[in-house]
Design a protein that fits this description.
Elements lengths: L10 H9 L5 H5 L5 E5 L13 E7 L4 E6 L2 E10 L2 E8 L13 E9 L4 E8 L7 E5 L8 H14 L9 H6 L5 H9 L4 H31 L10 H8 L8 H15 L5 E6 L5 H14 L3 E6 L2 H14 L7 E4 L5 H12 L5 E5 L1 H4 L7 E7 L6 H9 L5 E6 L5 H7 L4 E5 L9 E6 L4 H13 L3 E5 L11 H14 L6 E4 L5 H12 L5 E4 L12 E7 L6 H8 L9 E6 L4 H9 L3 H12 L1 H4 L2 H4 L13 H15 L2 H5 L2 H8 L5
Parallel strand pairs: 5-7, 9-14, 9-15, 10-12, 10-13, 11-12, 13-14, 16-21, 17-19, 17-20, 18-19, 20-21
Antiparallel strand pairs: 1-8, 2-4, 2-6, 3-4, 4-5, 6-7
Helix pairs in contact: 3-5, 5-6, 6-23, 8-9, 18-20
Bound molecules: adenosine-5'-diphosphate and magnesium ion (MG).
């Protein structure tokens, strides 16, 4: 059964549903309300205190429509409520007029103003409420009303076949759970508050079980994946390290030692290095690639953006300049000829290290002898990608690097399939980034400081926030900012803008000019928030900072402070000052992430896009930690049960339903 088979879903509604990312019945039924309105029609209290209430009334006059201005009208009528006469009004519901016939009983929801004897409604129920009613409220867009969604979902609940229940039978029994169908019914059309609680517990547990099962599965899969041991001499590694322009920090040394041990082992490495921005993860990955090279294998380093890939490529050329290592770059903007050359070189072993964007493992890229796959600021491979990698006939070691600051206990759970190394130190000589919140009205101060820094030869990052969750880019915002700055500085300061919609070649040119200090101010959207390294930048200005989670802001400001100079971060906004103060107070990513969790919840905490930890539909990591931990231990024990081992059906079903991507 498809969406379009549901009563009330015509072609137009289908398009509207697509706008909410609803494409299937499962999408629809798992489109959960984000809150509920609870109404019980009452008698208008004598001592009315201004609360929003619901009352039942009888219409006494034909409503009058007043047009206040274009697109703004008011409907008013007289009515009676328990022998009391009062006046009702509602804005922009002129279409209700024909339904409000004299003598009809309806429910008014809204507030009452005593001295005008007027009930100002925000909603009118044409079918009067008789008892306590719980009305689910969904996030919607312009073209689709809550009432529409409620109707369609109700129809789907009665007509559609039951959705697959991802909680295995033993746990349904153990926890005495309702059925999936019941849970969905109760979450969308609850009769009592108790039902909401019961249903959301079921659905949260189910969602987290599925998530943790996948992690447990990958962990187990990994533990039984063997590869050839790698051989290299520690002296050679140490000799290479001694050519570096700095000493490694203790943290770096610890992580490196584990990686080298992993490489030498016959069990596949699957390690995550978690370290704050600027903690020096890249060099560790380079040393790992060096060891892998000495063992006779090729390495690949994947970066999330082309800008970052090129930056790693440049650094690698520099770091390995006195070695025999041959390095290749493969990115989207290469010409076909260039790509073909790189592919040929890879296949015949003429490239030892390949650096590029994500496409390099998925495309028709074939290796001569791939031994190590490193991903930077990129989520770990899902089951599907692992299978692609294996199908290349190799079992490469995998190393992941991430700056997503996430509280330790969460890291160990959410990355449970990986061995996690934390880098807690920052390379010496680095100062804290001085962070200040400024209101828009204080922008002048910031502009003056920027000019000062530029006069001292330094550079500035500016981030415009105006991007919504869909990453829809508002070009005007960066353009407008550029104009603002140009006016402030009389067009005397070279300013450029960078955003995701530019062609890779253009982006690269813009980044190069900024790196070469030709451009002084780079205004960008958050597309380049990860990893970019321009040491000469000393100020980061973030507009509308309140729109971001603390973790994201912390990552953004990590683009400055990459030298021994004093560096600054200015957060420009008029709202949520208290929350942002955490950034003024601390430069510790792990602490900030704990605070973010407390203050804002999980929505942003994990920098979803960077971490690859998916957003949940109903579970909330900040409040549902207990359920998460239960799901973790349950999914792990389920994986080891005879029931699971004897028939792999659970795994197969998940795979079929594309839940193992
Ligand atoms: P991140 O962990 O954010 O990826 P990078 O690897 O980009 O950090 O390192 C940031 C900067 O610090 C780079 O310029 C790098 O060369 C430098 N760096 C790394 N390790 C050290 C160290 N032990 N001492 C001094 N500088 C270092
Ligand atoms: Mg990095």
């Amino acid at each position: 059964m498809e969406l379009s088979d549901i009563k009330g879903v015509g072609p137009k509604m289908l398009t509207n549903l697509h706008e909410l990312n609803i494409y299937s019945i499962e999408d629809l039924l798992t489109y959960y309300p984000y809150r509920y309105d609870i109404f019980e029609p009452i008698n208008l209290p004598k001592d009315y205190n201004g609360e929003r209430i619901a009352i039942n009334v009888k219409v006494e006059t034909t409503p009058i429509t007043t047009f206040i201005k274009r697109n703004f009208n008011k409907l008013s009528f007289r009515c009676s409520h328990n022998n009391q006469t009062l006046y009702a009004s509602i804005f922009n519901r002129a279409f209700l007029k024909p339904h409000l016939t004299i003598g009809k009983t309806i429910t008014l929801i809204g507030k009452y103003t005593k001295f005008r004897n007027e009930f100002t409604c925000d909603d009118i129920k044409l079918t009067p409420l008789t008892k306590k009613e719980i009305i689910p409220i969904y996030h919607t867009k312009k073209n689709i009303k809550n009432a529409d969604l409620r109707k369609i979902i109700a129809a789907a609940l009665t007509d559609a076949a039951a959705l697959y229940n991802y909680i295995p039978e033993p746990f349904i029994e153990k926890y005495n759970m309702v059925s999936k169908r019941q849970a969905l019914r109760m979450i969308h059309t609850p009769h009592t508050y108790e039902e909401i609680k019961q249903a959301s517990l079921f659905l949260k547990y189910e969602e987290l079980f599925l998530f943790m099962f996948k992690i447990a599965y990958m962990k187990k899969d990994n533990a039984s994946t063997y590869k050839e041991e790698k051989y290299f001499k520690d002296e050679d590694i140490n000799a290479f390290i001694s050519t570096l322009p700095f000493n490694l920090t203790d943290s770096q040394n610890e992580a490196l030692a584990l990686i080298l041990t992993d490489l030498k082992s016959n069990q596949k490495m699957n390690r995550l290095i978690l370290g704050d921005v600027g903690s020096g993860k890249t060099i560790i990955s380079f040393i790992a690639m060096y060891a892998n090279f000495l063992s006779g294998y090729q390495s690949v380093l994947m970066a999330p953006t082309e800008v970052l890939a090129r930056q790693h490529y440049e650094s690698a050329l520099n770091i390995f300049k006195n070695t025999k290592i041959k390095i290749g770059l493969l990115v989207g903007s290469n010409t076909k000829k260039e790509k073909d050359q790189v592919k040929a070189d890879l296949l015949n072993g003429n490239i030892d290290i390949l650096i590029g964007t994500h496409a390099i493992i998925e495309e028709t890229v074939k290796f001569y002898r791939l031994g190590l796959v490193i991903t930077d600021e990129q989520h770990r491979f899902g089951v599907k990608q692992r299978e692609i990698l294996k199908s290349k006939g190799e079992v490469p070691d995998a190393l992941y690097m991430s700056a997503t600051p996430i509280p330790r206990s969460y890291a160990l759970t959410l990355y449970g399939d990986l061995d996690v190394s934390f880098i807690t130190q920052k390379p010496g000589g680095r100062k804290e980034i001085i962070t200040k919140i400024h209101k828009y009205s204080e922008l002048k101060k910031v502009l003056m400081h920027i000019l000062e820094e530029i006069k001292n030869g330094h550079q500035i990052y500016v981030v415009a926030s105006l991007i919504d969750d869909n990453e829809e880019l508002d070009l005007k915002s960066v353009e407008t900012l550029k104009q603002k700055f140009n006016l402030a500085y009389n067009y005397k300061v070279p300013i450029e803008i960078l955003h995701g919609k530019l062609k890779p070649k253009e982006k690269e040119a813009i980044m190069t000019r900024f790196k070469n200090n030709e451009t002084k101010i780079l205004i960008s959207t958050t597309v380049i928030e990860v990893g970019v390294d321009v040491k000469n930048a000393t100020i980061m200005v973030i507009f509308d900072a309140d729109r971001f989670g603390l973790a994201t802001l912390h990552q953004l400001r990590g683009r400055v402070g990459r030298n021994s100079l004093d560096s600054y971060c200015y957060l420009i906004c008029d709202k949520e000052i208290d929350r942002l103060k955490v950034l003024e107070e601390s430069n510790d990513g792990f602490y900030i992430s704990e605070k973010d969790l407390e203050l804002r919840g999980s929505g942003d905490l994990f920098g979803i896009r960077q971490s690859g930890i998916k957003t949940f539909k109903i579970a909330d990591l900040s409040t549902d930690k207990k359920i998460l931990m239960q799901a973790k231990s349950d999914s792990e024990s389920y994986l080891n049960t005879e029931q699971y081992k004897n028939n792999m059906s659970y795994y197969k079903i998940l795979k079929e339903l594309e839940h193992l991507n």
